[in-house]
Automatic annotation (TrEMBL):
Residues 54-67 have a biased composition (Basic and acidic residues). InterPro entries: Amidohydro-rel, GlcNAc_6-P_deAcase, Metal-dep_hydrolase_composite, Metal_Hydrolase. Pfam families: Amidohydro_1 (PF01979). GO terms for biological process: N-acetylglucosamine catabolic process. This is N-acetylglucosamine-6-phosphate deacetylase. It comes from Acetonema longum DSM 6540. One of its GO terms (molecular function) is metal ion binding. The keyword Hydrolase applies. Residues 98-431 form the Amidohydrolase-related domain. Residues 49-79 are annotated as: Disordered. It comes from the Bacteria.
Amino acid sequence: MTGLIRNAAIVCPDRVTEPSWCLVQDGRIAALGREGDCSASSFVTETVQKGSAARRDEDYAAPRTERTQASNRRSNDADGPFSTVACDWQVDCEGDWLIPGLIDLHVHGAGGVDTMDARPDSMEKLAATLARLGTTAFLATTMSAPPDAIAAALYSAADYQRHPSSHGAELLGIHMEGPFLATAYKGAQAAAGIYPQGEGAAQQLASLLEAYPGLVRVLTLAVERSDARDLIEICKGQKVIPSVGHSAAEYEVMRQAVAWGLQSVTHAFNAMPAIHHRRPGLLTEALVNPAVHMELIADGVHIHPAVLGVVLGLKPPDKVSIVSDGTRAVGMPNGEYELGGQMTLVRDGVATLPDGTIAGSAFSLLAGVKTLVTTLGYTLPAAVRYASLNPAKLLGVADRLGSIEAGKVANLVRLDRQLTAISVWVKGQAV
């Protein structure tokens, strides 16, 4: 299948190129160029007609419906060679933004379903809902729960990876949030699901990871636990990213955990102590250590925008990823929703437990991008990078995902000037 997206403001990691076109072939970005670039246009024609290999010059792409052939034979079309391109579909973006599909490192659910439902139909609906909202790849995130419940969620996710929907976001793996956490900072995690320190917890983790090799990509743990080093060592052996969260770790403990191999911080500033000038805590080490990656929930609820700005100003630009921490309430109306065995109340996009504790998010990842642009004044390329290329780099998939470049997977999102998703393509297919 071949498709052409035209007249787009293509958002690259460091710039916007407009007006531009993107050629998609067999789910990949085949070529990119500027409107009116005859040499590039000729290459598009040659690529379509002869099936030649794509070259990696510039960076762009996308698709849509209808089979269109020679659809631009208007007398005022100055692009010449485009009038001979044969495409299965063609889209005129009319100057709208074209961004890479977003990648969510931390999302529990959306569209009324949750990873812990442990059902293939739930995972399919989750993937479809996320794609519709602009997230084209994700880590399905679990909660602290009894071993059999977590195992069931992993089994369901592994089954979905083997038989994915062709119209949903790509499931890149699992983010295990818990169950090796600190009860004092459990947040919306159920206390009964948190595993005691020691008592075979490390062996339980090893058994889960060995049963589903390559599925779990991130593990959130409290690094002050007596078994933290063992848990981190197991993660390293299985190529799982250890991330601190739901933790009361002191500054020195956090530094030691980083030396053991800790790589990231889960939803920074939430479910952990605030920075105190005499007790700096784990957040201080995360902020000053350029090697530590940080997740931020940029919905304007979990972290004040001013604090978001401080973190983004301190950290290297590739060491922060924004996440949604979305729950089954994402894309749903106000009401009551279950999260990890507990009831949450959603009002105007804010999800809480009955006692007022923030319980995940009811916002999409795209809403976080919009916060960075409209509230903090970030450029769209910079804001998008925090939700696409940075998470792709953390997961080691930036060779195929995370930016609009020739040769990469054609996961693309068309945004209007209000940053609302108009069209989404996953692997070159409209969803």
